[in-house]
Design goal:
With 147 residues, this protein is an alpha+beta fold. 27% of the residues lie in helices and 29% in strands. It has 5 helices and 7 strands, in the order E-H-H-E-E-E-H-E-H-E-H-E. A 7-stranded mixed beta sheet has the order 1-2-3-4-5-7-6, sandwiched between helices. The mean pLDDT is 93.
Length: 147
């Protein structure tokens, strides 16, 4: 069932429901507080969350994080639109390389232009992220060059 979604930048008032949504979808909420202003959310006509995606900024690099779409809406393109929205924001802010960490969605992100890279090849500025240091220490790292 496809639902008409509205995409918008998140605000601090969205923080608790974003964190709850991430928890419901098995993603960590650690660090979201600091970066909530760089999140994009998809809502239905009633204001219910369909999906979220976030961005952490580190000099000329960024970290795509917390990409989640509600289970019943997966496979309908909402995630792709959220990711492209975050990518557009990153590009507008001068980001040249966008990284992400994933345990099980590598094939999905490859279809969106990301490639697996070794952790040693990640920009040092990005390695300070809580995602790298505390949350996803064993996840695969992927990178997309933004032109």
């Amino acid at each position: 069932m496809t639902v008409q979604a509205r995409y918008r930048a998140a605000t601090k008032s969205d923080l608790q429901r974003i964190k709850s949504f991430l928890g419901e979808n098995g993603l960590p909420e650690l660090g979201v507080d600091e970066w909530v202003d760089n999140f994009v959310i998809a809502e239905d006509q009633n204001g219910s969350l369909l999906g979220v995606a976030g961005l952490e900024l580190y000099e000329k690099s960024g970290l795509l994080r917390s990409v989640a779409v509600a289970q019943r809406f997966r496979g309908q393109g909402y995630g792709r639109i959220l990711i492209e929205s975050v990518t557009g924001t990153a590009k507008a802010r001068g980001v040249k390389r966008l990284y992400l960490l994933t345990d099980d969605a590598g094939a999905y992100f490859e279809r969106l232009g990301f490639q697996v890279v070794d952790r040693k090849d990640v920009d040092e500025a990005v390695k300070v992220s809580v995602e790298f240091t505390e949350v996803c220490e064993t996840a695969a790292v992927m990178r997309r060059v933004i032109s």
